[in-house]
Design goal:
By secondary structure, the protein is mainly alpha-helical. It has helices at about 5-40, 45-65, 70-85. The protein contains three helices and no strands. One of its GO terms (cellular component) is cytosol.
């Protein structure tokens, strides 16, 4: 348990930060699943539109340090390859 005022404040901040990061990670996963689902159903135009939004989301989250930049690049690359495979 935190004893000093500074440690108590840092504990409060870490709880808030964790909640925020969890919600951002969830948003990321949902966006990726949405693109994958559209690719599976074969809706190319909708999948392209969703892919563009997902890339933006991935870049934002990687920029904030919630996920590593290499993981972001890998996810974008795999989605892009899956889209190209559709044609």
């Amino acid at each position: 348990m935190a004893n000093s005022a500074q440690a108590r404040k840092r504990a409060r901040q870490s709880v808030k930060r964790r909640e925020h990061n969890v919600s951002m990670r969830s948003r990321l996963r949902t966006a990726i699943k949405q693109v994958k689902k559209l690719i599976e159903t074969g809706e190319k135009e909708k999948a392209n539109a969703a892919f563009i939004q997902t890339v933006s989301t991935v870049d934002t989250i990687a920029g904030k340090g919630i996920i590593h930049k290499n993981k972001a690049a890998r996810q974008k690359s795999r989605l892009s390859a899956a889209l190209k495979e559709m044609t």
